[in-house]
Every structure is written in structure tokens, then in C-alpha cells.
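Page 47, continued from p. 46.
Same chain as before, 308 aa.
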Amino acid sequence: MTQEVSLVPHMSDDNRILVFRRDFAPPIKEDALQVDAYAIITERYVVLCDTLLCPADMEFVTNELAPALMERQLLVINSHSDWDHTWGNGYFVGHGEPPIIAQALCPQNLFSDTSRETLAYFQGHYGTFKNVELIPPTLTFEQSLTIYGGDLTLELFSAPGHEPDQIAIWIPELRLLLAFDAAEYPIPTLHEATGFPAMLATLESFLDLNPARVLCSHGGTTAPSQIEHNLTYLRTIEQRVQALLTTHPALTQEALLAAALHAYPFKEVLATLAPLYQDNTGFYREAHATNVRCIVQTLMFQALNEKE
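Result:
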């Protein structure tokens, strides 16, 4: 049984929505993280959203949910295929084997070479992951899926950007948006240039919902304003890169990247959007550089197409 998972009552203002937080603080500080998972207790179901880092995490969570599970069916959702959201799936092999629901791209991403390499790395460094197996979802959907829980409705929908298989969940009765990694504090994270326009569209769709509360998997925020902050951040990168392309059209990609990071340094990002945040691991400084690179690649490709 792990002791790194805890219930975080202040993150929810409704006793049907439970937030479980997993802290991972290994000796290699770059590997440290904090990630949240959610349990939604409806009249018909207990819906567990994400399975954290390992089967032991899910043992803790399901023990906490035992009273609710006595009279409700368990459903499991993977918000996307990233390791810190799916590596607890293996707990449910031999423990009721509930349906595991995800977006249709999740299975192939879960078994990608990168995913396998990540698992090999963590298993080679930390005993926490010794029992982790890559267990895929059992039910998938393309664009949307609705779970009717009786008192609460869970509207699952595709929310790409961070990853192609990213989803979000809207609970209209509570005006609650579970954004998972589609929005993030202090900044969102892109991995590929193709994710940039998709993330903009996803964040705009979140604004259209006008949520009263937003839960993200990282950062401990509940404020709907985080959606707007994420959009402001991405648009600022876009504007500053576009200005550089206009004044220095002959720059190479690497030169443009360096100029863009100078034009919009991480220090300014935190000062304007998250002044209280302490980036102790350097993760978000690196994420900012990756975000800028993705947007540079997108805008350079667009500029090239416009010339042809």
C-alpha cells in the first residue's frame, strides 16, 4: 500500500467529486511530479478518472471508495495515455476488471516505443514501478461519449493538444470541467507542433462551456481563469514569434527559436501568469522551451506554405 496518495478535500466543493493526489519525490528531482485523479460518485456509478502511477495507488483509492462501491458499479477512465495517468490500470486485472474508457487513439499511444522506453527507465530506477504493466482501455470512443449517472451526467469529449488522445469531462449539473492535462498551471504543455492549433481550439471550447470550476491534473488549481491564462500564454508566444518572422524572415528555425525565447523568457511568463509558482524541478522551464519550439515550427510551416 502506497502512502504517497492522499485525498484533497479542498479541491472539490461537492462531496460527490473526490480528488486524489499522488506525490512522487524521487532522488532524481527531474523525475518528481504531482498528479491528481478524480472519483465521481453518482447514483449509479463510481467513475474513477485516471489511475495514477502504479497498481498500489489504485489499491489505496479503491479502499477509500469501498463504501460507495458496495452499491455502485465501477467505471474507469483514462484521460490520455501518458504514464502518470494510466500506469495504475494493472490493478484492475483480477480486481473486478471494470470497463476502462478512453479516446480511440489511447491504446496505440500507450504501447508506443516512447511509452515502453519510459516504463523501462522508471522500472530501472525506482521500485515503485516494479508491478506496472501497460494495460490498455477496453472501451474507446472517437469524439464524445456520455455516461448517465442518475444525478450527474458525465460528457466525455475529445480535447486534443497536449496529446492527440487527450479528453476532458463536462458535468453540466455542477458546471464542472475536468480538464486533466488539456489545461495546466502554470502553463500548458505541448509535445508536437501539430498540437498547437488543436490546443487553441480545445481551450476555446472550454471557454464556451463557461465552467464554474475547473480541475487540472497538475498544479492544484480550480480557477476557471486558468483556461484564459493558458490561451493568453499561447497567443503571446504566437504573436512574438510572428513579429520576429515579419522583421527577420531569413532566420533559421534554431535562430528563430533562440530569438523567441529571448523575446518571451520564462521569467516573464511566470511574472505575468503565475507569480507565486516555484519551478523547483525545472520542468516548466523546459516545457516553455518545447512550447516555443512547437509554435515556431507551426508558424514557419505556415509562412512557407503562404510563399508557395
